[in-house]
Amino acid sequence: MTLSNKYASVVAAAQSAGINNLQVVEQDGILYVSGTTAYNKSKDAVWDALGLIDPNFSASDINVDVQVAGLVPGTTLVVATESSNLNIRREPSTEGSIVGKAAKGEVVTLVEQTSDEWWIIRTKDGEEGYAYARYLRA
Amino acid sequence: MKKTFKIAALSLLMAAAVVSCKKKATEPVSVETPVEVVEPAPVEPIQVETVSAVSPEVVQKVNDALKDFPNVKAEVVNDELTITGKVTPDQARAIKMSIDALKVGKVNYNYTN
User: Fold this and answer.
1) Which ranges in chain A belong to alpha helices (H)?
2) CA A67, CA A21: separation in Å to the nearest integer?
3) How far is B39 from chain A (nearest CA, A)?
4) In angstroms, rounded to a whole number, what is the distance separating the alpha carbons of residues A85 and A105?
5) What angle do CA A100, A101, A102 make, to 5 degrees?
6) Chain B interface includes A93 (CB < 8 A)
7) How much is the pLDDT for B21?
8) What pLDDT digit, counting tens, does each position of A82-138 carry?
9) pLDDT: which is higher, B113 or B99
10) ipTM score of the complex?
């Protein structure tokens, strides 16, 4: 079975979700599925499809890189940590000093999507800095 | 005699005309139409650009991805990134989401549940 066949439902989910710039490439024994979307629910749909095949998310033969991108500055985001506060940092790194915190469920404002991993946000109290994008939902 | 000769001549004339028409009808008509042959552009396969798991920038990004999972460790063996530890499926999903985005090639997710 080729990797494209094995993960056909993941690719189908990406197509149904309207993932932009969708690329599906098999290279060196890994199926790379990549693209962008403006909606977290579309990104979730692709990962949900993978979860049906690989419930423990431990597969080494598929690489899924679907990024939420193209958000307009001023977009409101919800903090989606597991339970703890989200640290807001001076630099885009967990080594960066903490300049503020946002609680789970708190609504913050997007200032800039500086990279796939780190976005600049601002809280309602005016604290501004880098936050890990994995914990922000549009 | 004259009449017979006239009829024969007329028949000959008619036969010649028929042959001439048939010849004209069966002659192929050549139409010169310029045909331009365009070679299709070669399709280059898409290459996924991967990065080294040992580059300082990637090491920092891996550390950032695992910061919230103290029971999870990452190490590079034979140029392959290996993630080990005890995680829930939701945590594994979050980790793979971050690690896959780095495109470091093959990643071994060796979790214990």
Assistant:
1) 3-6, 8-16, 40-53
2) 11
3) 26
4) 9
5) 135
6) yes
7) 52
8) 889 999 999 999 999 999 999 999 999 999 999 999 999 999 999 999 999 999 999
9) B99
10) 0.93
The mean pLDDT of chain B is: 80
Nearby residues of B50 by Cβ (< 8 Å), 6 or more positions away? B103, B104, B105
Closest-CA residue of A relative to B100 is A63
Residue B41, pLDDT above cutoff 80: no
Q: Is there a contact between B113 and A30 if contact means CB atoms under 8 Å apart? A: no
Q: Give the pair of three-digit tokens for residue A62.
A: 């598929």
State whether residue A28 sits within 8 Å of chain B by CB.
yes
Residue B19 pLDDT > 80: no
HSE-up of A47 (CA within 13 Å, CB side)?
Answer: 23
Measured between CA atoms, the residue of chain A closest to residue B95 is A57
Q: How many Cβ atoms from other residues are within 10 Å of residue B108's Cβ?
A: 13
DSSP B34-96: -----PPPPPPPP------TTSHHHHHHHHHHHTT-TTEEEEEETTEEEEEEE--HHHHHHHH
Q: Angle at which helices B89-100 and B56-66 pack, to 10 degrees? A: 160
